[in-house]
Structure formats: structure tokens, C-alpha cells
Design goal:
Elements: H1 4-19, H2 21-33, H3 43-58, E1 60-66, E2 69-76, E3 87-91, H4 102-110, E4 114-118, H5 133-147, E5 152-156, H6 159-168, E6 181-185, H7 191-202, H8 206-220, H9 229-232, E7 240-244, H10 254-260, E8 266-270, H11 283-294, H12 318-327
Parallel strand pairs: 3-4, 3-5, 5-6, 6-7, 7-8
Antiparallel strand pairs: 1-2, 2-4
Helix pairs in contact: 1-2, 2-8, 4-11, 5-6
Length: about 325
């Protein structure tokens, strides 16, 4: 059953659509890409941010300029004796922030990596009120120029297609930034699905939906149809790890199957029981990521994994291990 907000939104778009479907689509895009308040949206989130506060304060925060925003990067470094020279960029999802990725950063630091967490525009400590895929890739590019090159990208939810687009050079006005390894966590495989969901939420007519989707060409230089994983990453052959929970209620597990179908260079890891958000801090997941990025890959000489004992035994299901063996 539609919420009151959804009913009001649809009523407003019905009026705009009747006047001009093209303008309704433009309005939908502006609303869709406008970021919300960075204040905690619930008591649960407030508690989570408070728990991460001390660790975030220990990181080195470096602010970088991109058009329309100043983005914050948070650098977590290993000790001099443990530093293996590797660098990993961690990108959160929509309505999230680097604070939620602290467990991931700490596990990578324990493995000898410098972990750089990026706050996307309008999120966390970054300024700006607009976020779409090209803006995310601009932010990744800025992080690469300041802190890179990176041995690996780790992207959660919206951060998944963001790091894939950056690695594939999918945004025409941004240079291709390709790491040695890529990890996606609970990531959508087709941005068209996201736009169709949003259009349905707004109650757009077919004509307004076409206008809504056409805005992608304006900001990215490519049509929306190009931002699905089989097109965007068809020639991206770097090793990839796809992590997803079959109980994810926000991004269906089928997206993971689609990404893993790119080829034998992609591994699939089922992190069942962790849903869409808890997955980024689950010990089996953070350990799997550290293990994956620590393997020697194309062009890389990364040393072996060194993890604390508390995370050395990932609790993965039998199917996940089988997927890893079959797809490795």
C-alpha cells in the first residue's frame, strides 16, 4: 500500500505530467538526484555513528574539490612495520557514509593496506546537494589523483556501479581509473532498473519516463542503456569479487548473478543472513574482502593476508565456497 508521501508525490507529478511530460521528467531527475540531510535518519543510525566517531576521528581527513562539491576522504593507515604498500578505495552506498565502512577499513588495515574511505557528494562530511553516477565517478577520480593509484576498489550498493563505471571509463568526461581488483557488495547490476523503480514511485507516464531517463545522456554523455554491467564492464577483465546476501530486501540477489556472469575472472560470495546494510561490517565479509585484495593479481605484488584471529574463519555457506571454487 502506497505511503502518504508516495501518494502526494504521484499527485504532484500527475499535474506536472499533464502540463508537460518533458518537464515532469526533468523535475523527476532533479528530485531523484538531490541528496538528503546528512543527519542520522533514525536512532539506530545515530547509535552506529556514535560508535564509529572515535575511529573516524583517528583517520586523516583530506578534502578534495570537484564541480559543485567538496568531497571528504578519510585515510586509515597501518603501522609502518605492517604496511604492505597497498591502497584500497572504499565507496559507500546512497544515504550512507564512510562511518558505516569503518569495520571494512579496519580489516584492510590489519591486512597491511592503507584504506581510503570516500564520502560521496552530499553524504557524510562532503558538501553538495546532487548525486548521480557521473558525480560519484568524479569523486572517485579526485580520490585517485590524491591518494592513488589503488590496488582495489570496494563499492557497496550504489558504490558498486560507481566503482565499475570509474574502472571502465564509462563517464566520458572522466579519465578511466582501473585498479588491479574490484569488489562489489550488494550492488545493482543495471541502473535502468533503478530509474524504472524511481519512475514508478513518482507515477510517471511513459513520455515523462523517457524524459526522466534521457537526463542521463545530458550528465554522462551516454544513454541510460549503457549503464548496465554487461555493457559497462564487458572489457573489464580485472579480478572481481561479488558479495551479496540472498536475503537482501533492497537489491535483489539476481543482480549478483548478473555481475558474476561477466566471466571466469569474477567470484561470487554469498553472505546470507546479513541483508543489505549489515553486510558491510559482517566479519565474514570484511575478511573475504581482505583475503581477495591480498592475493597477487595482474600487475600486483601484494603480500599475503594478515588478519586478527577474530576474523580468520569466515562463516560462509557451502554454496558460497562452491561458487568461489567454480568461478576462481
Amino acid at each position: 500500500m502506497a505511503s502518504l508521501l508516495e501518494k502526494i508525490t504521484r499527485a504532484g507529478f500527475r499535474i506536472a505530467d499533464a502540463v508537460s511530460p518533458e518537464r515532469a521528467g526533468e523535475l523527476a531527475f532533479r528530485l531523484f538526484t538531490r541528496t538528503r540531510s546528512t543527519k542520522p535518519q533514525s536512532e539506530k543510525e545515530r547509535i552506529a555513528l556514535e560508535k564509529a566517531r572515535v575511529r573516524m576521528a583517528e583517520a586523516e581527513t583530506v578534502r578534495l574539490m570537484i564541480p559543485g562539491s567538496v568531497v571528504a576522504t578519510h585515510v586509515f593507515r597501518p603501522s609502518v612495520t605492517d604496511d604492505n604498500g597497498g591502497r584500497v578505495l572504499i565507496v559507500h552506498g546512497y544515504r550512507s557514509r564512510s562511518d558505516h565502512m569503518v569495520a571494512m577499513a579496519d580489516t584492510l588495515v590489519a591486512a597491511g593496506f592503507t584504506a581510503v574511505c570516500l564520502d560521496l557528494p552530499g553524504h557524510g562530511a562532503s558538501t553538495g546537494r546532487v548525486l548521480h553516477l557521473p558525480k560519484a565517478v568524479e569523486a572517485i577520480d579526485a580520490a585517485w589523483r590524491q591518494h592513488g593509484p589503488f590496488d582495489a576498489f570496494v563499492g557497496h550498493s550504489f558504490g558498486g556501479p560507481s566503482v565499475l563505471a570509474a574502472a571502465a571509463g564509462a563517464i566520458l568526461h572522466v579519465p578511466r581509473r582501473q585498479p588491479k581488483r574490484i569488489v562489489t557488495i550488494a550492488a545493482p547490476s543495471d541502473m535502468g532498473d533503478v530509474f524504472r523503480w524511481a519512475g514508478n514511485f513518482f507515477g510517471l507516464s511513459p513520455a515523462a519516463q523517457r524524459s526522466f531517463e534521457s537526463q542521463v545522456m545530458r550528465v554522462a554523455g551516454r544513454p541510460l542503456s549503457e549503464f548496465r554491467v554487461d555493457r559497462m564492464a564487458h572489457d573489464l577483465s580485472v579480478p572481481m569479487l561479488v558479495i551479496h546476501a540472498e536475503d537482501d530486501k533492497e537489491v535483489a540477489f539476481e543482480n549478483a548473478r548478473t555481475i558474476s556472469a561477466l566471466g571466469s575472472h569474477v567470484e561470487l560470495f554469498r553472505a546470507n543472513g546479513y541483508g543489505h546494510r549489515r553486510i558491510v561490517s559482517a566479519p565474514p565479509v570484511t575478511a573475504a574482502v581482505a583475503d581477495f585484495v591480498s592475493r597477487a593479481g595482474t600487475g600486483g605484488d601484494i603480500v599475503g593476508l594478515r588478519l586478527p584471529a577474530s576474523v580468520q574463519s569466515p562463516m560462509v555457506d557451502t554454496d558460497a565456497r562452491e561458487d568461489s571454487r567454480r568461478l576462481a
